[in-house]
Amino acid sequence: MQKITTAMADMLEDELMALTDKYLAEGKDPGAILEAYQAGMTEVGKRYEAGEYFVSELILAGEMMNAGGEKIKPFLKGETTQGPSKGRVLIATVEGDIHDIGKNIAGTIMELAGYEVKNLGEDVKTSVIVDEVKSFKPALLGLSGLLTLAYDPMKAVVDGLKEAGIRDQVKVLLGGSQIDEHIVKYVGADVFANDAMTNVSYLKSLA
Q1: Backbone angles phi, psi at 18, to 5 degrees
Q2: Can you give the pTM of this predicted structure?
Q3: Which of 18, 122, 153, 206 is the most buried (most CB within 10 A)?
Q4: Protein fold of 2-80
Q5: CATH number corresponding to 88-206
């Protein structure tokens, strides 16, 4: 599986897709393949933070993750899900922020883990998110934001849920590299995650 991780980290798209097809055809554990992808994504993130990679590499990595996920999904679902999805998840990048690479990757990971994910995109108005929580009825609402200016819109969403009387019906998870416990407390959310697998672990804890 190290070859998968290395190909992902080094942006070797053709090699990554070929390895994925090969391993799936050989009957290797799809969960292990997915974990190797995630390890590669973690390395991409480290290289980005170190200034070795730029936004273009993050976008390509996201596309590679999605492409590989589509190959893995049928094998993983057959192994991990029985009947209906494990639960519903609503994700959105809040108003004023257009960063969605991390959110999209997290959504893909959660789908592969057997959850029904609805992605509202980026720069989503507070009222739209609250209305979607009312109609979609997710177990988890994931709010993403990379910029510090996202904190107040995140708080506005939680306040909107309270005003609508539905705050206690959904767990609110914040995502973004700047998010920490202090921001969770300020926003009034339940938890934060800085990587996609943490999202899945938290979802499992809700079951």
Answers
A1: -65, -40
A2: 0.73
A3: 153
A4: 1.10.1240
A5: 3.40.50.280
